[in-house]
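Homework help board

Subject: predicted structure for assignment chain

Our instructor gave us this sequence and asked us to write out the predicted structure in token form, then describe one feature. I got the tokens but I'm not sure how to describe them. Can anyone check?
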Amino acid sequence: MGDANTTDSTAAADEAAITSGEAETAPSESPEATEPPEETTSPESTEPPVTTDETKPPPTTTAPLTDPPATVEEPVAAQGMVDIAKADLATRLGVAMSDIGVVSIEEVTWRDGSLGCPRPGFSYTQALVNGTRILLTANGVTYHYHSGGGDPFYCANPQDPLPPGGGDYGDV
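My token output:
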């Protein structure tokens, strides 16, 4: 009996909504179908109702975009430096880049502004310089590329950087 009263009151509410113009669907449709239009016409709601297409989370601008550069950009930067060195060596030797192997790439401290590649007749700053040394191989020969923060360059007569852990001025 309680079910009959609930059914009668629901039908009466549906009929009242139809005659007042608040409902946009026929009374035979389920109440779930009438819910979204009621939300969009409500003066209290300033946002449209969420549909299944809009349930995707918005793009985040926190953790993925603010990771420290050391974990994201260093490998990309190192690979870019290797690519520059390989392209230069491929041009010099007239071989394909795929014919050039990478022996090593390491962060080093150069003893002075020559970046481990001094040229006769030139003067260099007498200061320690952080940089990179890339060793490539082609046709059984090892080639040295050095950098001090910029693009790597070929060094025909390389000098060794400071040993790891070095860097005291007494070592220069």
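Reply (TA_rk): Your tokens look well-formed. For the description, you could write something like this. The first strand starts at residue 101 and ends at 110. That's the kind of observation they're looking for.
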